Amino acid sequence: MRLTTVGTAGLAAVVAAVSAQQRPQFDSGLDIVEVYVTVRWQDGAAVGDLDRGDFEVRVDGKPREIAVFSRETRPVSAAMILDSSGSIGGGDRARIRQAAQVFVGYLQAEDRMSVHSLYWDRQPLTGDRVALVNALQPMPSSGRL
After folding, report:
1. Burial 90-118 (b: 16+ CB within 10 A, else e)
2. Beta strands in the chain (DSSP E)
3. What is the reported pTM?
4. How many CB atoms sit inside 10 A of residue 83's CB?
């Protein structure tokens, strides 16, 4: 009978090699990209009677299968970050604020949003539409968004 002394590193390598041989190898991949869509009529009303066949998804111009389709309404959480720096003129600032208010108007009851500028946080994540619109008003001290 012959005994061989193996150092700690050697023993770890042997254990790892034996363990690797005993474990089955499994590789898998799944590429599903979730796309949430709201379709509205010209008057702003949501179109609610669409089904899978009314949509087409293309990647690099090639049609892709729609693996899962649901009409379920899902709440949205969004962060709006607005540029109120000196590079934005007063007229542009007003148009940005107006567009942001329109966006807030499209939020559903379950949706939440936060409002930030490049310099400070204006409104943490909330579902309170009044608080969101108030956060979009110019700050009294600077006149900036």
Report:
1. eeebeebbeebeeebeebeeebbbbbebe
2. 57-59, 62-64, 77-82, 112-117, 121-126
3. 0.55
4. 15
Rounded Cα distance between 85 and 63, Å, is: 42
User: Rounded CA gap, 85 and 130, in Å?
Assistant: 24
Give the tens place of pLDDT for each residue, 14-37: 445 545 556 667 677 767 888 888
* β-strand partners of 31: none
Residue 43: how many other CB atoms lie within 10 Å: 5
| Residue reference for tokens 């409104």 | 123
- Look at residue 33 in the predicted model and tell me its pLDDT: 81
132 and 115 Cβ atoms separated by less than 8 Å: yes
Helix H segments across 8-116? 8-22, 90-106
Distance CA 37, CA 22 (A): 47
